[in-house]
Design brief:
eight-stranded mixed beta sheet, globular, 2 helices, signal
């Protein structure tokens, strides 16, 4: 896993060094391609763990659906598309180009560019999740 994290850091570092010559989409596609060549299955790299009602997604290019009943979803990676059926008490996204679809969530934190969390509802009185977003193009959107 440490080798994969190192490879991803190198890939993303190289990709972002060419930011002026490529679009973000091109950079993310390059990262997915390079990471998969480093040992992941076609188009994906990294681990997914489910433990004690929580889900942890690490890596690049995962497209998965999970059911939660109050647990936490943590994503550390790039270009993942994750669907959560049920209730996530907290969603934390670190990385670029991730997309999350969730039925219900109370707290969302996004660190990184172009990641989005789409939610249907929340338990909060404000009718909006508590949100902390840092990164250009990142956001939390009611659907």
């Amino acid at each position: 896993m440490k080798k994969l994290k190192f490879v991803l850091m190198l890939v993303l570092g190289f990709a972002f060094s060419n930011v002026y010559s490529q679009s973000l989409g091109g950079i993310l596609n390059d990262a997915v391609d390079m990471a998969s060549k480093a040992g992941g299955k076609a188009g994906t790299a990294g681990d997914i763990t489910e433990e004690n009602g929580n889900v942890h997604v690490e890596g690049v290019g995962h497209k998965k659906t999970f059911s939660l009943t109050g647990g936490t979803l943590l994503i550390e990676g790039t270009s993942n598309v994750i669907t959560v059926n049920g209730f996530a008490s907290k969603i934390v996204v670190e990385g670029a180009g991730n997309t999350v679809y969730v039925d219900k969530v109370n707290n969302v934190s996004i660190g990184g560019s172009s990641s989005k969390v789409y939610y249907k509802t929340t338990d909060n009185k404000s009718k909006r999740p508590n949100v902390k977003v840092s990164g250009p193009g990142a956001g939390v959107i009611k659907r």
